[in-house]
Amino acid sequence: MYTEKVIDHFLNPRNVGTIAEPEASGTAKGAVDGDVTQVTMRIENGIINDVRFKTQGCVAAIACSSMATEMVRGLSVGDAVQKVTKETVAEALGGIPEYKMACSNLAPEAIRKALKAYNAARQF
Description:
By secondary structure, the chain is an alpha+beta fold. It has a single domain, classed as Sufe protein. Chain: A, CATH 3.90.1010.10. Helices cover 46% and strands 20% of the residues. The radius of gyration is 13 Å and the shape is globular.
């Protein structure tokens, strides 16, 4: 049912935790099953230098969060919004079941919310 990469990111998740006093943070909640993902980031000169996540959810939710944080590190804020999507995260994991895309692949949404808040705060 799950690819080896999904299982690896579930059993050995990367970037778990939170960043104290982050420059950006965002939370996304699954509408169906109650999965929740929180992402915190450290951003310097427009580049995401560190990112951490906390996820309450299933195998796919944890694996997607782990992969998304790996993908976003080192990207500019603008590139992160464009390049880290539900589709690119699922593809990087070798695929996840279609029914898990909306309820468990929450990290891209949490990342977007964090970066939207970060950009809004910088406009003042």
